């Protein structure tokens, strides 16, 4: 639990990041921030897609599929947002300490989940079309 609280404290306290290592070239910090913002936009797009699915998609031929898709998109959007801030903090810390940038499986996992979701939607659309 202390490890999780320490991470959250690093996310919320900008001075915490500055207490370690040396200041990197500002261009790298700005690039890290732009990457963070791109992840946040992705999370917001997933949340918007989840809300749009819940509100505007007609009922699908498979019972509760619309709700499952909506909740999955909302949860995925939230996970992307949380992951974005964690990635930003870990990358900033690594740059300040002169370490290798942290690796992550999250982009691959996100791509696989989005691909599977798209395939599920294709099946639902085809079932609806041939009814």
TrEMBL record:
It is found in: Cell membrane. The keyword Membrane applies. The keyword Transmembrane applies. It comes from the Bacteria. The chain crosses the membrane at residues 36-56, 68-85, 106-130. Keywords: Cell membrane, Membrane, Transmembrane, Transmembrane helix. It is a multi-pass membrane protein. One of its GO terms (cellular component) is plasma membrane. Residues 27-94 form the DUF202 domain. This is Membrane protein. It comes from Phytohabitans suffuscus.
